[in-house]
Amino acid sequence: MKYPAMRLIVTAAQMQALDRRTIEEAGVPGTMLMERAGAGVVTSLEQQLGPLRGKLITILCGKGNNGGDGFVVARLLHKQRAKVHVFTLAPAADLSRDAARMYRQLIRTAGKAIVKPFSSTSQLQTILSDSDAIIDALLGTGLATPVTGRYAEAIDGINQAQRLTVAVDLPSGIHADTGAVLGRAVKADLTVTFGLPKLGLFQNQGIDHAGRVEIVDIGIPPAYVDAVESRIRLITAPFVRTVVPPRRLSSHKGTFGHAGIIAGSVGKTGAAAMAAQAALRIGAGLVTVAIPASVNDVLEAKLLEVMTIPMPETTARTLSRAALDRLKDFINTRTAVAIGPGLSTHPETVALVQALVRQLDRPSVLDADALNALAGRAALLAECAIPPILTPHPGEMARLVTKSSAQSVNEDRIGTATRFAQAHRCYLVLKGARTVIAGPDGMAAICPTGNPGMATAGTGDVLTGMITGLLAQGVASWEAACAATYVHGLAGDLAAETIGQTSLIARDIIDHIPYALTNIGSA
Ligand SMILES: NC(=O)C1=CN([C@@H]2O[C@H](COP(=O)(O)OP(=O)(O)OC[C@H]3O[C@@H](n4cnc5c(N)ncnc54)[C@H](OP(=O)(O)O)[C@@H]3O)[C@@H](O)[C@H]2O)[C@@H](O)CC1
Ligand SMILES: Nc1ncnc2c1ncn2[C@@H]1O[C@H](COP(=O)(O)OP(=O)(O)O)[C@@H](O)[C@H]1O
Ligand SMILES: [K+]
């Protein structure tokens, strides 16, 4: 399967091989790649700071090619009349070949005095804390062992200064593949990464240390990229644009499907309401919620466009086993269904959900209490006629795989998600910072959108509704899971831009779905 508009995520070894092939086979000199890399950093810096003339910018350069990129940045900033200080961790004779070339070019342009050897942090602390920006060009994909000695001191100095910090390719000290901190690592506000995004930027401590990630094209031939064997992709806006169905002039509400949401119980009607509204906002033609009978009126009062069907309930006002046949009919007459938000873990409701999952023959999303009903019973998924989409947060994921914890899930999010999706022939959306989507074919995608403001009640219900809304429109499971997750995160980002992260609540995400779709060009 090809995923054209998604971007490949690579390991250090894969990126090094791509750089090498570009240099050796395509005949592009390494220094030209470095020049483009450095120019990309300067462009990003300009977007952050505005005109760079007169700005105090301090650049720390290591002895490898990452340092070489730093020398390019210094020369270009000097040309723009920024006040530039360069500190180098190695004498010129120890620099890598390309870094040495860029070093010589820098001193030819700006004079020798622009570069000083790094001796200790105390020497440069004042300069660092006065800087408008600090550029971290100490270590990139070549980092092999824990950082110690002067490199460690330089990293501490950058972090202590607490100025705008831009990491070149990777935050120094972050392992390019695992995202682990090797000894210590730079805490960047922005990471400008070259060619293709590195896996470590989206995993473990790499997420917080990288800050915002920008990708700069340095001219790696697309054919070489296509030949890379990587099963991990980054979801992009152009991908999402191809997924959200267009609205033809002749279309009517039936064209966009009928989403069914099996959700809610006493005290948890909001979950059902938000999932339903989110499904409509992402374009489903019709949405109906199946809800325990005694809370039906409450739901009707909350929802105008959504239909509701009261279903048999337990004395605890949750869906009862007596609802089974009616729910089977409900599912049969919907294009796609979601099961789970706010259902409760009442034993009878759990048994009902298990019975429904066994007979599920529609594109579906299983979330929240449906996942709790599957804890330790994931084998039931094998009975679904169409692989369902499961949307656990790390706690729910830990219960699904059993003998696990949210912490161990988070230590290997991609591995946990892909193993589960392959073993149980389902799609899995493992939520949290940098949500991972995995498919039964072993593919994984990482979502770059979203922010910690979304760590608030009900945002997961909104995502469930959005995925179901796309499924109802006939979008295939993988595409629906990836695109809805991206739009959900972008809606959260747009909401945070206007109201901030602290006050953000789930309904703000629903309200910003239209702006997210317009932003992507899908509305
Ligand atoms: N032409 C290209 O390929 C392009 C590459 N590009 C750029 O190059 C970067 C990769 O460059 P790279 O391979 O030179 O490695 P880099 O990250 O600079 O560091 C390696 C140096 O650090 C040292 N070192 C290692 N561990 C250490 C430690 N714990 N503590 C201290 N030192 C340690 C190690 O020394 P050694 O141990 O080998 O003596 C070695 O000298 C990449 O991220 C991108 O920015 C772009 O310009 C595009 C074109
Ligand atoms: N730090 C974060 N960065 C990005 N997205 C986040 C972050 N924290 C939470 N989210 C998103 O918010 C949603 C939370 O879902 P969930 O935990 O199921 O909440 P609820 O059960 O209350 O609906 C998920 O989509 C998750 O990816
Ligand atoms: K770096």
From TrEMBL:
Single GO MF descriptor: ADP-dependent NAD(P)H-hydrate dehydratase activity
Assigned protein family: Belongs to the NnrE/AIBP family.
Residues the record lists as binding AMP: 431-435, 460
Cited PANTHER family: ATP-DEPENDENT (S)-NAD(P)H-HYDRATE DEHYDRATASE, ATP-DEPENDENT (S)-NAD(P)H-HYDRATE DEHYDRATASE FAMILY MEMBER
Cited function: Catalyzes the dehydration of the S-form of NAD(P)HX at the expense of ADP, which is converted to AMP. Together with NAD(P)HX epimerase, which catalyzes the epimerization of the S- and R-forms, the enzyme allows the repair of both epimers of NAD(P)HX, a damaged form of NAD(P)H that is a result of enzymatic or heat-dependent hydration.
UniProt: (6S)-NADPHX binding residues: 65-69, 140-146, 151, 169, 271, 342, 393, 461
This protein's UniProt keywords: ATP-binding, Isomerase, Lyase, Metal-binding, Multifunctional enzyme, NAD, NADP, Nucleotide-binding, Potassium
Chain ranges of the YjeF N-terminal domain: 15-226
Pfam families linked: Carb_kinase, YjeF_N
Record bears the keyword ATP-binding: yes
Signal peptide range in chain numbering: none
Organism: Nitrospira lenta
Subunit structure: Homotetramer.
InterPro entries assigned to the protein according to its UniProt record, in alphabetical order: Carbohydrate_kinase_pred_CS (IPR017953), CARKD (IPR000631), Nnr (IPR030677), Ribokinase-like (IPR029056), YjeF_N_dom (IPR004443), YjeF_N_dom_sf (IPR036652)
Co-factor requirement: K(+); Mg(2+)
Domain of life where this protein originates: Bacteria
Protein name, per record: Bifunctional NAD(P)H-hydrate repair enzyme
Bilayer-spanning residue ranges: none
